[in-house]
Amino acid sequence: MKRVFLLAFVLLSALPASAQTIAPHRAAYSLSLGAARGDVVGIEGVLAMDWAEVCEGWTIAQRLRFRMSESDGNSVDTEIVFSSFETHDGKGYRFSLRTTRDGELIEELRGRASLDPDKGGSAEFSVPETTMDLPPGTLFPTAHALLLLNLAAGGEKQISRAVFDGATLEGALDVSALIGNLLPPQESAANIAPSLGSRPSWRVRMAYFNTDDQSGTPTYETSMRMLDNGVAADYTFEYPEFTMKAKLERLEPLPRPRC
Question: pTM of the predicted model, to two decimals?
């Protein structure tokens, strides 16, 4: 479940001067249960995210807290804290993730990765100590989001790329995205900055596959309304047993760096 909250960019230097870009922002989402097909009967929680730009690149800081209730009356409180830094040229990446369940540490990941646009790259985890190869064409988080923005603005409808975010030890996932037609701006709700929230958007649906799985069945799927500034106005996360919804509740701009 960690990975679904991590959006994933071709190199900025490879994009035209008029390319779409991401507006640095701070967003908060409320989480709730959508359709349930298994033992899960309730989900409530929050997702807070800062997506910031610094002189050297992009940073993402996410904190996810939610309670999942099951039909037998049990419930589990989970917190996932993730942070990353990605260079503007898309070649360097650092990441950190910490997961607790009912206050007990379940998993901790830290490391760095590097990419060569033609040759692929590698990821080195310091916690736990392990390394893995990344296939040619892999993108880091932020890179994939920018790629989607630019393809959507150019009228493209489908894109498939490998994405590495460091959120699991599985390595890169193959992400297949379908992009809908351009939608007009919607009126911003309270606590959502109109300059960020009242923007044209596209519906985007993404399916995530393990790179070595030939079954054709995705590990999970997500859909969202992606604004033309990179803000996600809402999410739906689809698993075999249930779906989870994330509704945008608060949105404010973050300053751009003075370099």
Answer: 0.88
